Amino acid sequence: MERTYIMLKPDCVKRGLMGEVIKRIEDKGFKITNMKMMTLTEEILNEHYAHISDMPFFPGIVEYMTSGPVVGMIVEGDNAVLGMRILMGATKYEDAAAGTIRGDFATSTGNNIIHGSDSVENGEIEIKRFFGPDA
Ligand code: IDP
Ligand code: MG
Q: Which residues are near ligand 2, the ion (C-beta closer than 5 Å)?
């Protein structure tokens, strides 16, 4: 079974879309095996988003991601990493197809509802980052 790290971002929580997004994940047949609500620190975001920390939009991402609670989840299933990326839709909000989570709900590329790991290797790193070394 493959695992991926999924995170419902602050706009998802604030807009009352948690149930809708979780329903799509479960309807697709993926299993949520751990889940917790938390408020992120700048420190953990610098680690989690190290690959974009030099971008001009990064300070805005930190402000947004610390603006309210997020929900972290471990999601398991066949091909869970790619499968979740397909359910989520494209990063750039104007490219996210209708029927995907981002295509249906994102209001900008920054405020794009959901995070999902981009590889099996990063999934395991992110699961341990947010759920601890024994997860
Ligand atoms: P991903 O979330 O689809 O994996 P990444 O490239 O890893 O996309 O970027 C992480 C997050 O940074 C995105 O989900 C989005 O919120 C934000 N982001 C990425 N590119 C841009 C941009 O060009 N403008 C504003 N925010 C961006
Ligand atoms: Mg990414």
A: 118
Structure confidence by residue, pLDDT tens digits, 72-82 = 999 999 999 99
Going by pLDDT thresholds of 50, 70 and 90, the confidence category of residue 46 is: very high
- Please check whether the domain covering 2-39+70-131 is classified as CATH 3.30.70.141: yes
User: Which residues are the active-site residues?
Assistant: 115
Spacing, Cα 134 to ligand 1 middle (Å): 28
pLDDT band at 52 (very low <50, low <70, confident <90, very high): very high
Domain ranges for the chain = 2-39+70-131
Task: Considering every ligand atom shown, identify the ligand nearest to the alpha carbon of residue 115 and give its number.
Answer: 1
Half-sphere exposure of 32 (CA within 13 A, CB side): 18
Q: Does 114 sit in the ligand 1 pocket, CB within 6 Å?
A: no
- Reported in sequence order, the residue ranges of 39-107 that DSSP labels E, i.e. its strands, are 70-77
> Tell me, what's the pLDDT at 29?
98
Identify the sign of the CA torsion 112, 114, 117, 123.
positive
